[in-house]
Amino acid sequence: xxxxxxxxxxxxxxxxxxxxxxxxxxxxxxxxxxxxxxxxxxxxxxxxxxxxxxxxxxxxxxxxxxxxxxxxxxxxxxxxxxxxxxxxxxxxxxxxxxxxxxxxxxxxxxxxxxxxxxxxxxxxxxxxxxxxxxxxxxxxxxxxxxxxxxxxxxxxxxxxxxxxxxx
Length: 167
Description:
The chain has 167 residues and is mainly α. It is built from two helices and no strands.
């Protein structure tokens, strides 16, 4: 039986000691382990809440940034449309100014041409009159004798003597 006792004491006693140790360890370390587990759980929940808040803040920041980006894209499209409209209006205004300038140049050129033609006509008339007068004088000089010239001269003198001088 001793052999049996040795087997029981050699096998059962270490298990019994281990069970007593575990019971004592659980009794003694239950509160600190529970507190540590609760602390870890609280830390995890706190970190989880912080991560959720950070995620929510990141979503809000993303939404705000996306809103700003969309607003900037809309503003950019608006600026592009305004710039295109302004450029179109400016080109239209420049084209109108150029057309006005062309009309002015055409009118001024026409006026200068008419003036030059009128001046040339006056000069030609004057030259024709002078040439006709010179030819008439030459013809009169050739065809009239001195007695005819005297008669014409006396008649012109008598016509002018009947005139009254201006007062």
